[in-house]
Amino acid sequence: MKYSSGIVALCLIASVLGSQIRFQSWNLRYDSKPDSISVAETIASLNATVPYDSEITYYTPSSEVAWSSRRIGVANEFAFNRPDVFCVQEALKRQVYDLAELLPDYAWVGVGRDDGKEAGEYEAIFYRKNSIKLIDWETFWLSDTPFEPSKYPDAGSYRSATVAHLGSKFNNFTAICTHWDDRSDRQRQLAASLLRYRGAYEAETTNAPIITGEQDMLSINRTFESQYKSQLSETFVWKDVLKETPVQNRMGHYATFNGFYDIGNTQAFGRIDFVMAGSNGGWEMSRYKVGEVFYDHGVQLSDHRPCVADVTINKIKK
Ligand SMILES: *[C@@H]1O[C@H](CO)[C@@H](O)[C@H](O)[C@H]1NC(C)=O
Ligand SMILES: *[C@@H]1O[C@H](CO)[C@@H](O)[C@H](O)[C@H]1NC(C)=O
Ligand SMILES: *[C@@H]1O[C@H](CO)[C@@H](O)[C@H](O)[C@H]1NC(C)=O
Fold it and tell me: Could you state, in order of their start, the residue ranges of all structural domains in the chain?
């Protein structure tokens, strides 16, 4: 696999029985220009005047602006999509708490990856409180010591995965939110190995059919190996749900990364954010969309575009 910048989001939807779930994954770009402006202050500063057409410069040249100027748009993107579950990557504590404040219909789980508490970026999973119930959740690290906050030797950053077991009235499923290293290809191979192994375990606990796998794995931490042992370890694979979506129901962009581009400069573009589902089956893709982050007022909401997937969760055949 090739990664132009190595920023990868991967999420699982496994299953038991039920209906359609809307799922969204979005790398929010960490708060690299922090300030102390509150959510209330940002809302108070918004201009309620709707401009005349002649007053607008469409696609105003732009670059990265502070999170405080992006967060209302980011929250509204989630609010309009109404996902049942959404994953964010790169969100610092303040960003997670701002979204919780702006989106009171959702609860969330996750930890800062640098200390397992509040330091560093969160791979947080939000779920809609009136439709989704949290069963349990945990975080593991994409390193040789996955049970503690840790960094793979040649990785640029600490890298982790948040696993949530979620349920609704009709179905249970597992969501995994993760973000791989941008520097170390070896770290990404290890991350793939750990997630494939863990995915197989998740698949087996739903009593799924076996499907032939594709890739050899790196050796992984022995404790992790024995804790998540399953009969699917050799065969389970993750499937890119875009490829599984009926062609007439695919919508939006190809690239998920735009690097805070200006019109005409697409050099950094790449497809590096993914929604994936387990080869154990029990799901069917309805629709998939890579959305937009650059609107007429010239503020780019993130340097990644949001991925939205409508997935029908089926009863698993036994
Ligand atoms: C609000 O927007 C209108 C229309 O674009 C503009 O004329 C006005 O100057 C803006 N007000 C402020 C305080 O920015
Ligand atoms: C596996 O990871 C745990 C903690 O995450 C660590 O204590 C243990 O030493 C690791 N095992 C090996 C063989 O590296
Ligand atoms: C979902 O998980 C909960 C908690 O483990 C369990 O009690 C419930 O029976 C599960 N529901 C289904 C439909 O499997």
Answer: 9-313
pLDDT at 315 over 90: no
CATH top-level class for 9-313? Answer: alpha beta
Give the Å distance between the CA of 17 and the centre of ligand 3: 10
Q: For the segment 57-70, what is each residue's pLDDT rounded down to a tens digit?
A: 888 878 899 999 99
In this structure, the residue with its CA closest to atom 1 of ligand 3 is: 172
From first CA to last CA, the distance across the chain in angstroms is 33
For the Cβ of 16 lying below 6 angstroms from any atom of ligand 3, the answer is yes
Mean pLDDT of the chain: 88
What does the block give as tokens for 76? 């509204």
Q: How far is the CA of 232 from the centre of ligand 3 (A)?
A: 22
Query: At 79, is the pLDDT very low, low, confident or very high (cuts 50, 70, 90)?
Result: very high
* Beta strand ranges found along the chain (DSSP E): 9-10, 20-27, 85-89, 106-109, 125-128, 133-141, 160-167, 172-179, 238-240, 250-252, 276-278, 283-290, 307-313
Q: What is the pLDDT of residues 228-274, one digit of tens each?
A: 999 888 888 899 999 999 999 999 999 999 999 877 789 999 999 99
> Is residue 135 within 6 Å of ligand 3 at its C-beta?
yes
Please report the atom of ligand 1 found closest to the CA of residue 48: 1
Atom of ligand 1 nearest to the CA of 56: 5
* Ligand nearest to the CA of residue 206, numbered in listed order: 3
